[in-house]
Amino acid sequence: MHKITGLVVLSGIICSLVADAKREAFVYDPALQQYWQHCEAGMEYTGRTCQGSVLALSWQKALLYCAALSADKVWRLPTRDELMHYYARYGQKRLHIVNLYWTSTTDVEHPELAWYLIPELRWVYTNYKELDGLVLCVANSD
Amino acid sequence: MCRKLRLKVCITLWLMLGLSCLSSVLVAAETKLPCYDMLHIIPCGQADFPRQAGDFAPAPKQDRFQLTFNDQIVWDQHNKIAWMRCSVGANLQNQHCNGATALSFEEAQAACAASALDAGGWRLPSVMELNSLLEVQQPGLKIDQQFFPDTQPAAYWSSDRSLTAPKPLQEKRAVAWHVNFATGAIFDALTQSPQFVRCVR
Q: Tens of pLDDT along B74-114?
């Protein structure tokens, strides 16, 4: 009897942990050792999908948006290489909106421009920082 | 603080030995990315432009490349792959690669496969392999020119075909990705268009 009660309690705990993990707003990538937001700025992760209205922000606002996320991790806009690796690993499953995603890397020869990725087209290039783009934030695991 | 100490040691050594030590400090200092506002370089850590690439610049990859096979092949420790030092069509003479030729995608695939350099086994690199050679923080040509001399300021074919091109082109497998070492950009192009080629194995 005690065994059955114990199993029920244990399964309840496991189920609630899984459910909590599914509702987490971020996903851990063990290969890159980084946390990535499930959903782009403006959207909320329901456990299965991202819902809400996606926000398009200028480069500066994108930096500020990531830096203002929860204090338990150092959230930031990914660099060009980080976003490229994330896209190469997960493709359009994780970066699924057909639009420009900002990176935190400025074009050294044209500082008014920053690097972006358009996942659908797999274009990587630079554009004016005033332009509105999508934002997906990253945090290192340490 | 560490850099200041290094600088002091270097200045002392410089007085004793010459300029080479100081130049190594200057090179080391350049490896960190700067931080920017909308138009200019600014000190990193500014509240209005927080946590950008300059704040999280990765450590420079020390000793990533090694020359092998009479300096004609570059061993990439990071990716565990070997690169042809010269673009396809070019020959290495006095550490320069002369005569690079632009080829269609199919010609590029065939040229890599047909190369007999060090017993062959060459192929076109994937777009991520090619992207890993890019040094976008570098002004001018965005590749290590010591290891890849005379890289063309132009696009190089990757082996990845586009899956997002218009359907008729997809069906003909007529579009593939390329990486441009003049700009750092990655775009797609018609496979019949001529681009430069660097093979890998």
A: 999 999 999 999 999 999 999 999 999 999 999 999 999 99
Helix axes B2-17, B20-30, angle to 10 degrees: 150
Coil, helix or strand at residue A136: coil
- φ/ψ of B174, rounded to 5, equals -100, 5
Query: Would A33 be classed as within a structural domain?
Result: yes
Give me the number of domains chain A comprises: 1
Comparing C-alpha atoms, which of A68, A115, A41, A84 is closest to residue B36?
A: A115
The complex's ipTM works out to 0.80
In a domain, A80, yes or no: yes
Angle at B59 between CA A108 and CA B17, to 5 degrees: 90
Query: Could you list the residue range(s) of the whole structural domain that residue A34 is in?
Result: 25-140
Nearest to B164 among A103, A115, A120 (CB): A120
Contacts of B190 (CB under 8 A, 6+ apart): B169, B174, B175
Report the chain B residue with the minimal C-alpha distance to residue A84: B128
